Amino acid sequence: MSKVAIMVTSGYEESETMIIVDFLRRLQIEATTFSLTDNLYVTGMQKITCKCDVLFNEAVDDYDMVFLPGGRPGGANLSADERVIKLIQRFNEQGKYVVAMCSGTTVLEQASIINGRKVTGCHGYEDKLLSGKFVKEVVVADENLITSIGPATPFPMVYKMAEVLGVDPSDVKEKTLYNFAKGK
């Protein structure tokens, strides 16, 4: 079973984080929330507090994919955390999947792992993701790097995550009425 590590820090974007965790688990993909604070309880951008599964630790290196949600100041807090920068640099060097949404995409620039690859991010981020080829698409996958725009896009994002991990999301799309809503 594939494993996804979700990085959670103060000011995380709740919808991006919780929908990704929820749907990864529905898809039978192991999804573990790692608190980057000194507490399992972390408060997000909208003042919703979640209890993470574990505190950040070296077990994260055993995962197949790392996910960086956005948020304010969540994205900035991720960028300022040297453990996160080193983690995504290691994942990138090993060809493991590095996935980011919204302001979480700025961490990729901070870690210098974009390097000419196609990326997307929140509107206006073409000025922040300068080392990549910014495209205005909902979800962009380029090699082991997957990016998405923001709080309205976690559903197509999580389905892309599943697909690259070799999991067919068709059944979950149908059961959760994603197909009925035509992905909107």
From TrEMBL:
One of its GO terms (cellular component) is cytoplasm. Residues 3-162 form the DJ-1/PfpI domain. It comes from the Bacteria. This is 4-methyl-5(B-hydroxyethyl)-thiazole monophosphate biosynthesis. It comes from Sharpea azabuensis.
